[in-house]
What does this fold into?
Amino acid sequence: MDACQTYQTPLSSRYASKEMAHLFSAENRFHTWRKLWLNLAIAEKRLGLHISDEAIQQMEASLHLDSAQFEIAAQEEKKRRHDVMAHVHTFGIVAPAAAGIIHLGATSCYVTDNADLIFIRTALTLILGKLAVVIDRLSAFAKQYRELPTLGFTHFQPAQLTTVGKRATLWLQELLWDLRNIRRARDDIGFRGVKGTTGTQASFLTLFDGAHDKVEELDKLVTELSGFSYAYPVTSQTYSRKVDIDALAPLASLGATAHKIATDLRLLANLKEIEEPFESTQIGSSAMAYKRNPMRSERICSLSRHLMVLHQNALMTASTQWFERTLDDSANRRITIPEAFLTADIVLTTLQNVSEGLVVYPRVIARRISQELPFMATENIIMALVKKGGDRQAAHEHIRVLSHEAAHQVKQLGLENDLIERVRKEPYFDPIKDELDMLLDPKTFVGRAPEQVDRFLAEWVQPALSDEELQRSLENSVKAELSV
It folds into this structure.
């Protein structure tokens, strides 16, 4: 039995969406408990226990708590030091005909654990919808900039060119994996069902005079009434806390994805190539008026770290459950599970905001390319000379000497990269000077990046978002935007 563990609304619920904040609110939690007690009474009545129609009707009419009932429940919990029994008593006051049969045969985990499974499954569904919107927005960004060349980085050092859109597909691919993982976790959620104090269903077997078939039917019926297709076949007093691991793992993985995306954007903001939305009246620094800090991306990184760490709580809690249960999971889970979903919700809301307002600066990108491209083009220049009848080794030596001279200008003197000007002045390169502009066109250095973007969006993103459930989420997001 649970000791007194008052449910507090997590701090992050202030900033989460209304749907997610309501899901983990005290109001919804205790409303859900009452629905579970009602489902149990309905099932027990159908299977022959003496429960009056009036009792069922009064329970159905009293599923929502008003402020007076919350006050009664608080006083009862203070007196009884037991949250579930406090609410059993409070429910009985407003449904007096049912007072004697509420919670009949059940243990506290009948309502606490089954309610948690309802919340987890619903929360995963909400996360799926919000993630679909982020994927949709970033897809539009990738398509818009599918062929805009940009300097690629490995080790955060200049590498071969890619495109702005292609880089965005790398973010999208990870988000698609998150979509897959979260859907898998959601669809795998079962129901604890009606299992009794240590999972043996002994109390219900007593209620039904040893009729095993009725106990099995009771478990099945309550599961169906509660909206689940199956219940876990065996449990202890609680459902296995490995279920929490499986639910929070894809959220932690989403946190890693979001952190990576936001970090890339923070680095790009430093390079002044891409910036997150920045309001006209926004202040970047209290001292440095010129600053445009990427505060949204920084917030994503900050919260994503919190989200990734919360999964460790689920792992440790599952590993320390003694036999049929121990209560040291309770207080931890009442913080960890809501916080994980509320945090994921805020991360996705912020990521959506960023993805909808990304600002690209093509001229800055082009200028950075111009600083590095001459060095990258040396191989093309050598090949062009060879095609004109030149000697590969001689061409290599000429371009090597000029490259080192240009590098000295850049690194030692802080000047612009003048390699191409040096090439134009060198008579040795006369045979290909009319081809230099073509050889230096950044679009010839991006490989199949634009085509990769097109194919990825068509063959992976669009099919993923074509799911009917996700389409509803996208439609709702459009309606929400129009209503603002």
User: Anything to note?
Assistant: Residues 192 and 434 are 76 Å apart (CA to CA). The radius of gyration is 31 Å.
